[in-house]
Amino acid sequence: MRAHEKILPYILFFPGAGLIFLFTLVPVVHGFYLSLQSGGRFVGLHNYSTLIFWDRRFQINFSNTLAYLLVILLTIPIAYAIAHFLWKRFKGLSLTLRIILFSPFAMAPIATATMFRLMVNPLFGPIPILIEKIFNISVNFYADSNLAMLVAIIHSVWRSVPFMSMYILVGLEQIPEQVLEASRLDGASGLKLFRYITLPLTLPFLLLATLMIFVWTVNDFEAIYGLFRGGPGYGTEVLAIRLAREGFMYANFGLGSAIGFMIAAMSIAAMIAWILIQR
Fold this sequence. Notes:
Layout lengths: L2 H33 L1 E2 L2 E2 L3 H9 L1 H13 L1 H20 L4 H13 L2 H11 L6 H10 L9 H29 L3 H9 L5 H28 L3 H7 L10 H11 L3 H26 L1
Antiparallel strand pairs: 1-2
Helix pairs in contact: 1-13, 2-3, 4-8, 5-8, 6-8, 6-11, 8-10, 8-11, 10-13, 12-13
């Protein structure tokens, strides 16, 4: 092998590696360094300890984020039901139905958030008007933090279900027909078929979709901010919104960076859990 042929792989490798280092590793290291500062002074882990132990607003942000993650628990059964429905009943029309089903996820989050925000508007929104006519009660989704979070969760579920349904549907279509026929001959049907055949064989697809939705949800800023701007009060202010406000609105880069690394830690923990389960 000639000398230039030995060097060629390294010549091709280093430009890409250099770009990754420049645009990924350097910002991460710099961001962590900023999280150790406050007002231009090095304060170590003070920002982290302040957020965890003393910042009441951060505790609200964290609890709101956990509540927002209920999206995952609500998405899984709905996605499984839709995937089974498409798999069993509409194989011939699956392409058309898949396009319709996937459309909520394909739309811009800020657009769908604005649509939901208008739907629950206390003055002219169809949902408050319908609730008042049916139950004779007046509701204001803009003023009640619990109702606002409920709307945010429903909106996220509405967007997440298509993505998870597509993943599960792909998993269902990978199940060999011979396995299903053999299971039916052995007397498996209904819940037994789901428990012992369908669920185990589609579990890798479900876990991957769950991981991706978890990471997207915990990092979600655009959709939930587009709904209620984090309000009323701090009622829907999740960690991602607090990060954006501290870093870009208040120019508190140290605290904002610390929140960002806490969000990253949650995502990394979810990825590690996914790897361990896969083993």
